[in-house]
User: Which sequence fits this backbone?
């Protein structure tokens, strides 16, 4: 008799009551194991998970991810002391294009910018004022090899859309992150590469679903020690679209949320998402597949980069983004516990 047959005969001989007890025990075990997996993203990760992530579990992308630096690959691919700090800003759109990106850019690296390329101009200025270089492009061939990307301490996707990467660029980005690269995803970076699970994981296991009307709300800082939130007020007003996410981020360190009670028109999105309740995330960080990833859903309006005080919260948003980029590229401490 084979071992499989003996196991089957043994199972058939177990009394029904014992079998039922065993099933209950197994169910309890796996239920507990699922809860443990959800909490496994780091200290206090369970409390940081937005509504839904706690209840349904978090997706598994087959990589090391979470808030522990054990998931980072420090393989010596960057030498800031020799090369300085450099960032690549990528704003290619293969679908809807946000107005603050201005007209589509020409081919190559650092093509001419118009005054209406607000995001690109603002980040170039930010880098110049804070001692790091920003190159910009919408040419996918500039991301075609890991060697190109390893010239940069961080890659920033700002309001890219749909299938903004070809196969070569996808492979290159993945190899770059696995080699210890930094990534900052801002606003409609969440509306990009919908059908690529690895990229969804890079965003924190999150994806754009819908948003309600653009409106003023209050951002609540949840972590006082991270480089991107240190020095920000506990609460500050800002106007945005307040993205709803499916899935919601998991195994991440939530840095800021929006107080949905301050949204006069509510958090319900145009596709019916009811919002995230008390845990509506707008900024978070994680280690992912060897690299660092800092994320924010904020940044819809051109006014977010204004410096004349006409757009409430613009100064705080710029500080948030600056700290996020600097920490993603390793210049400042990354994803610190609050």
Assistant:
């Amino acid at each position: 008799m084979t071992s499989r047959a003996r196991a089957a005969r043994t199972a058939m001989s177990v009394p029904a009551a014992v079998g039922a007890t065993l099933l209950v025990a197994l169910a309890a075990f796996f239920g507990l194991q699922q809860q443990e997996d959800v909490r496994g993203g780091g200290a206090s990760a369970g409390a940081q998970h937005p509504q839904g992530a706690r209840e349904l579990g978090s997706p598994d992308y087959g990589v090391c991810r979470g808030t522990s630096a054990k998931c980072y690959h420090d393989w010596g691919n960057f030498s800031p002391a020799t090369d300085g700090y450099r960032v690549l800003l990528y704003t290619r759109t293969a679908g809807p294009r946000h107005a603050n990106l201005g007209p589509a850019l020409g081919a190559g690296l650092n093509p001419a910018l118009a005054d209406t390329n607000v995001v690109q101009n603002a980040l170039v200025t930010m880098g110049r004022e804070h001692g790091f270089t920003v190159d910009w492009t919408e040419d996918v061939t500039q991301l075609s090899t890991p060697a190109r990307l390893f010239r940069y301490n961080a890659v920033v996707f700002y309001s890219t859309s749909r299938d903004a990467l070809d196969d070569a660029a996808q492979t290159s980005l993945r190899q770059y992150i696995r080699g210890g690269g930094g990534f900052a995803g801002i606003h409609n970076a969440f509306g990009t590469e919908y059908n690529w699970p690895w990229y969804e994981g890079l965003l924190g296991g999150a994806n754009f679903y819908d948003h309600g009307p653009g409106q003023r709300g209050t951002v609540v800082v949840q972590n006082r020690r991270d480089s991107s939130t240190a020095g920000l007020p506990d609460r500050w007003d800002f106007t945005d679209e307040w993205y709803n996410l499916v899935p919601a981020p998991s195994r991440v360190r939530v840095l800021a949320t929006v107080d949905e009670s301050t949204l006069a028109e509510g958090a319900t999105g145009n596709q019916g998402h009811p919002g995230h309740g008390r845990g509506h995330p707008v900024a978070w960080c994680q280690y992912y597949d060897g690299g660092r990833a800092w994320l924010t859903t904020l940044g819809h309006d051109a006014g977010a980069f204004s410096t004349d005080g006409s757009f409430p919260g613009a100064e705080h948003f710029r500080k948030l983004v600056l700290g996020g980029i600097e920490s993603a590229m390793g210049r400042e401490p990354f994803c610190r516990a609050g």
